[in-house]
Model the fold of this input.
Amino acid sequence: SKTRDRLSVFLDSGIYRFECSNVVFIDPVRVLNLSYTRFRVSPSAYYSRFFDPKCSGEDRHETKLSSSSKKRKRREKKPHSLNERERAADQRHQQARPMLLKALECLVAATDLLAIMRNLRSVFCPLQCRELPTPLNEHSFTELCRVWQAPFYEITLNFPQHHEPSRDAGSLIDPCTGQRIFPVFNNLVVNETGSDVDAAFLNEKYILPKESCFYMSELEQIHNLIPAEADCGFNLIVVDPPWENASASQKLLYPTLPNRYFLSLPIKQLTHTDGALVALWVTNREKLRNFVEKELFPSWGIRYAASFYWLKVKADGSLISDLDLFHHRPYECLLLGYLHGEGTNSEQMSSWRAVEHDKIIISIPGDYSRKPPVGELLLEHVPGPKRARCIELFAREMIGGWTSWGNEPLHFQKSSYFIER
Ligand code: SAM
Done:
């Protein structure tokens, strides 16, 4: 019956906590759905990859990738002596390996969960659900953000007509229709209501979760998010930087930035007086890990606390690639650290549960480089007030209760990623 309890918690929350306490499985679709009232995240749009291509018939890109990974595998079989950096990377991998294998064992043993996993993609698609139309001409926020006309682009939020909007800076309210118009770039766009709203921008429809806001801008404008008063700062800061990456496909997805740009991110200034937990996504490149440990965290004033692993599996519970493939590991790391706020004293420091080491988060990946929503797993480790103030930097999506910043936080809010309840 314990298993049944775990399953029913999973069905409600999207989070399955295995008996091995440091391992969880998450279904991002269920987690994200907690931010919506009128819409649902479309599982078939979220899980566009890693479901059996024979069933979906549309995973051509994935098939291509796996044939190139076969080539890679062949190349990697050739014995070659590792240089110093590769040895360090291999050492890190060897350390993580037994934990990752144990986590995978936990998953394979959870047969009830595995049965649900196979259907995650189709589970919410009963006939009464209406897929929202796919927009015809998609535009790129990352390009629009930079043009001189950027300040003139507007987004219209369609609030339910009975809703009495509070007076916000920078928005015009139409009392008859409930519509509110905001400049879309370099401006904080807020849905402070307890229900999701739909929004229109350049002939496309977007869905904004309840109690959420976004600020869409280039890096130069991030300073506008620094709160005037420090007790309005953030207690949880999740960062997924556009690290430079050798892979060409990555470059086509979004612009990247050299490491030195991240040194000047105003993490300290964004932090709440009571301090913050900072979670940083990193790739497996050893050079990057060194940069984060030796330069980036120190320059942000962060004390390293723990590493989490995101283990990527397919719908059948197997890894998306060979665990030992050198340049294509089936996992990524989330590095966690604490930043003391000005008002943090040692008594407060002991009033929340510090984050534990080596947690393993298993999920089936969504779109390219889309990270699973980890906020819920981190909340109990966040210092400061109980309703934590949360921000995601370089976000491509929005979450209820969060501020999303980046040059395309509306990317995954397009209506084609949703179905109407
Ligand atoms: N966490 C995201 C997700 O799960 O979908 C992925 C973030 S992706 C690694 C990095 C993001 O940073 C991209 O959306 C990219 O467009 C954005 N970005 C790149 N250069 C930027 C800049 N100069 N200012 C703001 N955002 C930028």
Notes: The CA atoms of residues 297 and 303 lie 7 Å apart. The longest helix spans residues 84-109. Residues 55-66 have pLDDT under 50 and may be disordered. The pocket of S-adenosylmethionine is lined by residues 142, 218-219, 240, 242, 254-255, 257, 369-371, 394-396, 406-408 (CB under 6 Å).
